[in-house]
Every structure is written in structure tokens, then in C-alpha cells.
Amino acid sequence: MARVPLVQNDNAPQEVRAAFDAANSFNGRVANSMRVYAHSPAILKFLLPLQAVLQKDGLGCKLDAKTRALAMIKVSALNECQY
């Protein structure tokens, strides 16, 4: 169970819904972490560009896609992520 409630589309302010729409078109979904960060729109507006740089080739990240994927898997395993 989440300790911080997730911001849902129906009760999100307009600027947050716009960020959710952008995330949905970029990732195909709105991640739960983004729904938590949506409590602070000032943070949220920088989150999607940061994720884009970290996840997509050619946007400035120095690591190749395979290394990034391995890092995400390792961090998830270390944190005992359930999904």
C-alpha cells in the first residue's frame, strides 16, 4: 500500500494532467512514481525531460541502452522491487 496517495487523472490540476498526457505519449503510461511527484508540480515539470535523457538514445546520456537497462535491473533487484 502506498504511503503517499497517487494523484489520479480525475483529481489532477490542469498542469499535472498535461504532464500526465506527455508521459502517456512518451512512455505509453503514467508511472506511479510520476503520480507521487505530481503532488509537487515544480518537480514534476522537470521529471519527464530527465527521464527522456536517461532512457532514450541520442538525447545526451553517456551510457548506451544496454548499460542503462542493466543498471535499472540491478537497482530494482537491490531494492527488492515487486514489479
Question: Could you provide a short overview of the structure?
Answer:
Helices cover 59% and strands 0% of the residues.
What layout of secondary structure does this protein have?
Layout (H helix, E strand, L loop, with lengths): L13 H14 L4 H6 L3 H15 L9 H14 L5
Notes on the protein architecture:
With 83 residues, the chain is mainly α. The protein has one domain (9-78). The chain contains 4 helices and no strands. The protein has helices spanning 14-27, 32-37, 41-55, 65-78. α1 (14-27) packs parallel to α3 (41-55). It starts with 13 loop residues before the first helix and ends in a 5-residue tail after the last helix. 13% of the residues are buried. The mean pLDDT is 87.
Helix and strand element order:
HHHH
Q: List segments where confidence is low: pLDDT < 50 over at least 5 consecutive residues.
A: none
What percent of the residues sit in helical stretches (DSSP H or I)? 55-70%
Backbone structural class: mainly alpha
Number of strands: 0
Q: How many separate domains?
A: 1
Mean pLDDT: 87
C-alpha Rg (nearest Å): 14 Å
Q: What portion of residues belong to β-strands?
A: under 5%
Largest sheet: none
State the distance separating the first and last CA atoms: 14 Å
Number of discrete helical segments: 4
Shape: globular
